[in-house]
């Protein structure tokens, strides 16, 4: 039994209602129902309708369910890139998408800035040959965001035929995207949706579908059970090609319901309030400082700070108070901390964390 | 709230202890822990050790976790077949593996018998050029099994360099395989392991790893995050490349514990007892008959019968008694039923089902 509150950047704290929904899932034996039954189709349709409402998603977008953001990276390249992709890189996850494209035999280009830095659209030259342009809205490793308003500028400078991808793995539902300025967005449920891991959600428009069809027509293999055409066809029938993670789909629909009841405006506002509390604390602290210098690029959902004390030490000090924060990513493990600011985290939990960090004199 | 007992062939009845394990998972916040933590590595190692013991798996086999059997089919072809695969086909799932190979651009060969029929090893000519030979131990759509003892004959007649694959999606842990006569076996957790769907388990030996390395060395792309070399490397460190379905991995380890406590011999014996009860009932019934004529080929875990009354009608009659059976697969939806006989189903539950089917006069 643990009462620990997880401020780790995903898997993270579960949304407060997950426990009750899991109990009702077990009582209703959701883990036993057929994935070809009407009951499953209703669960699928419910999750999609809820997400459309929460994200204010235009009708020309499909909502697809895969296993992870890793899988989405791979399927995106496999289904949408014949020759070449282009990537903004400023941390481990944006770099990984870039690497995956190369591992699948594509020509890859990147515009890279150091870990912890952001991008200025006017400095980014996107090659005319890029078929997929990968933006990283929120780099979970470094805590750097792309301001939502900048995305339209990338759309302007990207080749007209290219597909603009936005990684919002650890930021949605906070960012208020203009989905007309992009072609695809994706996220993982174990970040801001406060669910157990095992599901990646892929939003893509009709231009992605058309490109996949065109590649397929030219004789290129898009894969097998998880090609975009198959996923879209099955998805429109509220089905998946394989037996999916039914339980998580059920929980997603329920949590999205709860988020809709709360209202996206309130969720956004609370996210901003909590982010302000955390950054204010970091600015004043003598042991921490925000890792991202430029305030315009600071993530609101995965907040990274330089630290004098490694996260492992801090977590030992926080353990008696039932709290855990994230360590820095990769080689920043001991010199940075990461604090998740997700919808599952309440204002009072954040206040308690900051109070303890201050009281500990660290 | 439902007390329905699911005799559907997967997703199916959850193993009786899953409810308690899920409760303890939620109390211990397994859904929130980092997939890079020692706690996760322990969960991973525990599931692997339990499976090794339950299945009596030799040390030269790796245990890998993917998202579904569909994914395992695709990764197998992508990682292990340069030119050509060969498939035994006698139903929808064995056919799907064959199709996936073609969709990935490989040359495919098959030996096909009609739905509901089995294979005689002496009649199967495996081409010398086959790199992967796909056997279907248990065809979930038609209820046909390959007798375990026949597998050695396929190994004899298959090209020496070829990799012998055994689909045990809906039969393990019952079959007592000689793992030295094959190179890979795989199953889904929502069948005989009585878990929620969202995890495919892939067992493969050092010959598979060597072949994947050889293809990679020759410049062939094996994919990206889920190549065999990456999965094996991460797996040996009790990790996965992506954030996996942590909760299901935890539940798998716990259920396998319970199965080991019960003992594989008892599980096998009970499976055989229940299968005999069901087949005896079907033989005597005037409304059903076993769909598989040859008793040597009858599945013990997914039992298929021809029916005069469609499953949808039967399930309406069974609903007041809190029971559900599976319909026939695909075009057999109304003319066949499928009864799952998994470790989660107790002898008394099976007796109750047969009693009701008899009492209903059907």
TrEMBL record, chains A, B:
The keyword Transferase applies. Its cofactor is pyridoxal 5'-phosphate. Keywords: Aminotransferase, Pyridoxal phosphate, Transferase. It holds the Pfam family Aminotran_5. Residues 6-329 form the Aminotransferase class V domain. GO terms for molecular function: transaminase activity. The keyword DNA repair does not apply. Belongs to the class-V pyridoxal-phosphate-dependent aminotransferase family. PANTHER family: ALANINE--GLYOXYLATE AMINOTRANSFERASE, AMINOTRANSFERASE CLASS V. This is Aminotransferase class V-fold PLP-dependent enzyme. It comes from Pontibacter aquaedesilientis.
